Amino acid sequence: MITWRLPLVVLTCLSMAVTGCMQSSSGQGTDGIFSHSAASKMAVTGAKTKLKFWSTGRHDANYIKEVIHRYNQENPDNIEVEMTVMADDFAQSLDLSFASEQSPDIFTPIDLAEMTRKGYVEPLNEYITPVIRSRFGKQAFIEGYNVFDQWIYSLPNSGSTLRLIYNVELFARAGINSPPKSLDELVEAARRITEIGKADGIYGFALPYKIPASALGRSAVPIAEISGISGDGYDFSTGAYDFSGLKPIIGAFRAMMENGSTLPGAESLDIDPLRAQFADGKIGMYLSYSSEPGIYKFQFPAKIKWEAALPPSIDGTYKGVINQGVGATRWLSISSQSQHKEEAWKFLSYMYSDEVLIGYQEAGLGILSVESIAKKAKRPDIGGIEGFIPGDYDGIWPASPQGFKPKGREWEDEFVKYIMIGGDLDRLVEDLNARYNAALDQERAAGRVNMQAIPEFDPLHPQDRLMANDGSYSKRTTAATTEI
């Protein structure tokens, strides 16, 4: 059963594609986890155990609906899962559910660090067998992402890649031969597209500025990372916050706002309306995740020819990798309040089976981040996906300090306000540095953050040095052998 907390376009074509992706094979799967096809041959008796599953996934909802329907019909344990797709109030709804002791049994954690601190998430260590550990590999267990103090709280599904998405036809009309590789080229391309298209309501650039964290997370962050700068202002080499590296990026976004090449009304624009405008040929380019190809095939069928390229860097040279850390290391978690944790794990085992994960990639919903599983999956037959395949400039950065907020407005809100109305960017950065470092110092003094500087940090190889339990850093060759 599935319920909805927001209106969504019914993805009929996706449901048809899923059927092809989920053909059963006989017997126990080679993944060492529950095999759906094996369950279909087993008798189901006794009263049903009902599990509540809250998902924030919108783009993959129809695929997951089909997966859960099959599970409910054929699992051998008489488990019935009810799925609810949540809207943007997920965090508040989850807080209320735990306060009233009516939490879901399984959910997709938005901020796993915060949810583990609140005690919402059940550790999975007792369920992680050697077979499962080997199947997922060490890259699937990373402190600060899905592991906290050696407790495992989730497992990976797909890792999002971030790219510049651009309208090929508008680029040709504007005489632009290739996607921009630097910020200067980005601003110039946006200006030229607007110049030739404004009379028809076409603008060179757009971002969903309505939600600042969403807008900058899909744009400023990957531009910073590929330029060798941490996307959220934390400098791993010094162990302190320094937002000055983001100034050229925020300045470029402000320039495109000032010169009129940003889509009007962007300050109140959410991502789906932006996608609808892009699909209709009204936007030259924007930055976003690897979910876009599926969206332009199923949700907003594109009327244009579009492609994806690496984000521009600040100066046109690539000095770092684009972080896949969050999406590449977590997907589902079990509630600490669940009265049916064993059954919840059986459902997770099914969701993490080869059958479901391979079908997820082949349906074009994401690019699997676990190599041993990804190599079994076919590349999805969806236009535009080629530009999102992980390459030399995709990777996983260490997790920056989490779980605290500075006094006052957060960095995304401050920067979007500047992009909209201008101001003194130097003073703004000084204020952010002071407030974030004061909060970080407080957390370190209280023992809630133990991360220290990594003087030899290399943005092109960010996992070469990993944090040890005492907060120090050692070479990956030794840290990676530590058992979780």
Commentary on this structure:
The chain is an alpha/beta fold. Helix content is 37%, strand content 12%. The chain contains 20 helices and 17 strands. The protein has a 5-stranded mixed β-sheet, covered by helices on one side. It starts with a strand and ends in a 5-residue tail after the last helix. Mean pLDDT is 86; it is low at 4-32, 34-43 and 467-484.
In short:
With 484 residues, this protein is of the alpha/beta class.
Roughly how much helix do the residues carry, as a percent range?
A: 25-40%
Q: Biggest sheet, strands in spatial order? A: 1-3-2-4-14
Structure annotation, total helices: 20
Low-confidence stretches: 4-32, 34-43, 467-484
- Could you tell me the strand content as a percent range? 5-15%
Q: In this structure, how is the largest beta sheet organized? A: 5 strands, mixed
User: What structural category arises from helix and sheet content?
Assistant: alpha/beta
How many strand elements? 17
Q: Report the principal-axis shape.
A: globular
Q: Would you tell me the overall average pLDDT?
A: 86
C-alpha Rg, in Å?
23 Å
Distance between the termini: 36 Å
